[in-house]
């Protein structure tokens, strides 16, 4: 299959009500007319210590700045742009020719006298002359391949990054001022900054600017960071916690890679990088003195050598890569350090709250960032011949009509509702179809005194009454209620509940409710055991929701329980998705989840969800583990074949059409995905039957982008100030040649909505723009967990859920020291499979 041969845009959509929106893209009004010289740069340290990988980008820029200053004559009058890694771009060739090798000496980040100066060998070698005229040729239509834009785009991005670097703190493609930092959970702080990238649009090259909020370590006491990371009340509490391996392991995952400096030597404050946490306290951390070989401990050494009596000798030390130990109380966290791991749940929640900015305010902040960059006055921009429009791009958009939703009614006739602003009310409504609830049980992981049985019974009474009102036949209204300790064997608790349900109701348990006093690791354990060992559906909830039963909360529970028991809460009305209903059609969503945070040494997980009926109500789920950070789905053929076999078993027909939505793929991976994944899907069909050749459409779904759409007219905004649900854009900011569109299928709740970006990489069906856009938008109202449209097609969301759940399956105990090694040793065939009893039952929470 040829690389880069993607479907071209088959025209523009016309369905829906026209409107105008702003996009946070700024058009380049001038581009370089001359070539740009591209050089490869290598910065090699000549003397130890070797810099930490997190320190390397900052160090590279310090060295590069010294290079520019010291060797200006050799470099000539050209302005240089450095991407922070291996690429330098020059507005004109160097005066010394195609190569330059020089030595640079510096003491980056440290005053004189603290350490021997670090010396670097810097080598510059010319790679190419980039023909910037190819950009204009592409947009004039005289150059067809968008691959010719890759090098010019990279050069322009490097220039913009160089401009930002000289004015702000830059990290990757984002830049920060360091102002207005807000403390968040876990000893961290939130920094407000801006993301910046360059992309090709239909009208020309565009500068995309967006706001971002990122977690940084708070500068200051390492001891304070350790306490807040583990929620320790004070240093003594921290010491008690760190006696246990699980807390030491947790803290080590948090602190590994953090840059510190030490204060016990007065004005001399060397810098180090934390590698690990010692197993024992400083008072028992024994080592041999180099001069005499005499053995002593860290606490005694600090008292004798530095006259520093440790206040907390019972705390473990931190160790650098060479094993040198430092008591936490003499360590200070350096400033300007972005958190390189996934922050804890509370910190993530804080970041989400801080980033939830109303659309009008976010639009103003973005324009403010453009002003702060002062691109029009910047000498580097002028030297490279770049100019950017001051105003955001105004676009033609359309608001698609919402789909009609079919529910049930008391007289069993059909009830049709039309969403308003992306949602519809279930008040007074019955669900489309509901199963019988005849056997179930409840396990409360809480103290009976804090969560009395009468409180649980009252909640269950309120909830089951609502279940009945919404159409469910609840024959077992008084399930057995069991109590379990948070430290009790979860499997035993679930087995006891299943036995109690069968004894009480005379049939196997259909579902077990689990009530937790607080959010904790038991949830993972419950899901892992119930779904991989017992083939048992579960519904989990927090005890606080039983205190004053809320009908909206109970309604949400009903949607989940109904789906888990095999019901259909609602479906799209007739003719809403003719592509799916006119012929046997399977819709598949796929995603690859990569390890982060505590499990960052584990495998990547490829997950897939495939529809089993024309109502898009029943889904088959599967997953595989694969090599860490591998984005391509290694077992694509086998997973797709599993989907097709289950579809055939359910419908007695093989699908004649396959619509495949693939999440998590970057632009640079498009060719590889077509070469490997599309070919694997074709192979799966051939393995099923050599003559089986369904039409395949393969669409990449992107949500990790920075495009934002803002309504220009209040009548085109919903109550949150966002564009209305169903807003679609398929021109101007879209790709110059490919078939893609932005669809904001959801209404705003808080903050600024992000549209999904859909890119068609393969299409044997030959979709028309309106057909694919309306189909995708309508399917976004079929997410089983809520009565509102969502921001991505449900097939992809279900694949997300499966991948997240699979991570729980693999993590027997998130704090166990063997977890990381267990995960890292997993292979594509070493995983805990979903119980066969549940494989075709959608897991929605």
TrEMBL record:
Residue span, PAZ domain: 221-335
Single GO term (MF): RNA binding
Superkingdom as given in the UniProt entry: Eukaryota
Domain Piwi: 510-811
Residue ranges crossing the lipid bilayer per the database entry: none
Pfam families: ArgoL1, ArgoL2, ArgoMid, ArgoN, PAZ, Piwi
Family per record: Belongs to the argonaute family.
Descriptive protein name: Piwi domain-containing protein
Species annotation: Thamnocephalis sphaerospora
Taxon lineage: Eukaryota, Fungi, Fungi incertae sedis, Zoopagomycota, Zoopagomycotina
């Amino acid at each position: 299959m040829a690389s880069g041969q993607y479907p071209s845009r088959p025209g523009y959509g016309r369905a829906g009500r026209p409107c105008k929106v702003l996009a946070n893209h700024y058009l380049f009004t001038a581009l370089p007319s001359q070539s740009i010289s591209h050089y490869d740069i290598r910065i090699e340290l000549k003397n130890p210590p070797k810099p930490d990988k997190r320190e390397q980008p900052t160090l590279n820029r310090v060295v590069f700045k010294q290079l520019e200053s010291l060797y200006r004559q050799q470099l000539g009058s050209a302005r240089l742009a450095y991407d922070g890694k291996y690429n330098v771009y020059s507005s004109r060739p160097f005066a010394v020719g195609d190569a330059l090798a020089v030595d640079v000496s510096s003491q980056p980040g440290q005053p004189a006298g603290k350490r021997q100066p670090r010396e670097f060998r810097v080598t510059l070698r010319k790679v190419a002359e980039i023909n910037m005229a190819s950009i204009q040729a592409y947009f004039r239509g005289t150059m067809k391949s968008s691959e010719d834009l890759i090098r010019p785009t990279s050069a322009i991005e490097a220039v913009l990054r160089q401009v930002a670097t000289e004015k702000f703190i830059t990290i990757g493609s984002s830049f920060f001022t360091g102002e207005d930092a807000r403390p968040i959970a876990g000893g961290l702080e939130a920094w407000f900054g801006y993301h910046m990238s360059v992309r090709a649009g239909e009208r020309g090259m565009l500068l995309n600017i967006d706001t971002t909020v990122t977690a940084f370590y708070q500068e200051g006491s390492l001891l304070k960071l350790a306490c807040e990371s583990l929620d320790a009340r004070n240093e003594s509490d921290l010491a008690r916690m760190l006696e246990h391996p699980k807390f030491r392991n947790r803290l080590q995952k948090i602190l590994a890679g953090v840059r510190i400096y030490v204060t016990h030597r007065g004005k001399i404050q060397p810098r180090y990088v934390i590698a690990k946490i010692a197993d024992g306290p400083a008072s028992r951390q024994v080592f041999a003195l180099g001069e005499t070989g005499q053995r002593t401990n860290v606490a005694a050494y600090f008292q004798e050598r530095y006259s520093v009596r440790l206040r907390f000798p019972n705390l473990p030390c931190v160790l650098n890569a060479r094993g040198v130990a430092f008591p936490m109380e003499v360590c200070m966290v350096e400033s300007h350090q972005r958190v390189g791991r996934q922050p804890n749940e509370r910190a993530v929640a804080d970041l989400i709250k801080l980033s939830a900015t109303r659309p009008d305010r976010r639009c103003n902040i973005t324009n403010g960032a453009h002003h702060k960059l002062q691109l029009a006055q910047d000498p580097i921009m002028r030297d490279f011949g770049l100019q950017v429009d001051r105003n955001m791009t105004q676009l033609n958009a359309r608001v698609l009509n919402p789909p009609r939703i079919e529910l049930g009614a008391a007289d069993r006739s059909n009830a049709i509702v039309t969403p308003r602003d992306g949602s519809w009310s279930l008040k007074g409504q019955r669900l489309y179809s509901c199963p019988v609830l005849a056997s179930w049980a409840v396990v409360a992981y809480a103290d009976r005194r804090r969560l009395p049985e009468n409180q649980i019974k009252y909640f269950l009474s309120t909830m089951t009454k609502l279940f009945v009102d919404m159409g469910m036949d609840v024959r077992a209204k008084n399930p057995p209620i069991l109590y379990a300790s948070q430290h009790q064997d979860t499997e035993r608790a679930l087995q006891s509940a299943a036995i109690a349900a069968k004894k009480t109701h005379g049939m196997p348990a259909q579902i077990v409710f689990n009530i937790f006093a607080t959010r904790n690791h038991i949830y993972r354990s419950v899901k892992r055991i119930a779904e991989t060992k017992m083939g048992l559906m579960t519904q989990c909830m927090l005890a606080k929701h039983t205190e004053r039963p809320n009908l909206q909360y109970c309604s949400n529970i009903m949607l989940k329980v109904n789906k888990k028991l095999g019901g259909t809460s609602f479906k799209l009305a007739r003719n809403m998705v003719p592509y799916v209903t006119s012929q046997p059609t399977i819709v598949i969503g796929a995603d690859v989840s990569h390890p982060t945070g505590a499990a960052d040494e584990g495998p990547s997980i490829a997950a897939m969800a495939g529809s089993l009926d024309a109502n898009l109500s029943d889904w088959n789920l599967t997953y595989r583990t694969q090599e860490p950070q591998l984005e391509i789905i290694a077992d694509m053929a086998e997973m797709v074949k599993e989907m097709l076999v289950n579809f055939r078993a359910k419908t007695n027909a093989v699908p004649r059409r396959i619509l495949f939505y693939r999440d998590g793929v970057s632009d640079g991976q498009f060719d590889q995905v077509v070469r490997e994944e599309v070919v694997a899907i074709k192979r799966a069909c051939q393995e099923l039957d050599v003559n089986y050749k369904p039409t395949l459409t393969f669409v990449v779904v992107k949500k990790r982008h920075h495009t934002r759409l803002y309504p220009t007219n209040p009548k085109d905004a919903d109550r949150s100030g966002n564009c209305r649900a169903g807003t679609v854009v398929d021109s101007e900011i879209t790709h110059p040649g490919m078939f893609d569109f932005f669809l904001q299928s959801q209404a705003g709740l808080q903050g600024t909505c992000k549209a999904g970006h859909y890119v068609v990489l393969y299409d044997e069906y030959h979709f028309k723009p309106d057909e694919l856009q309306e189909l995708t938008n309508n399917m976004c109202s079929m997410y089983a967990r809520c009565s509102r449209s969502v921001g991505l097609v449900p097939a992809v969301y279900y694949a997300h859920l499966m991948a997240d759940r699979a991570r729980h399956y693999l993590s027997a105990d998130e704090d166990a020291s063997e977890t990381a090694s267990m995960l890292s040793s997993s292979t594509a065939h070493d995983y805990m499979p979903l119980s066969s009893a549940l494989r075709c039952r959608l897991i929605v929470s």
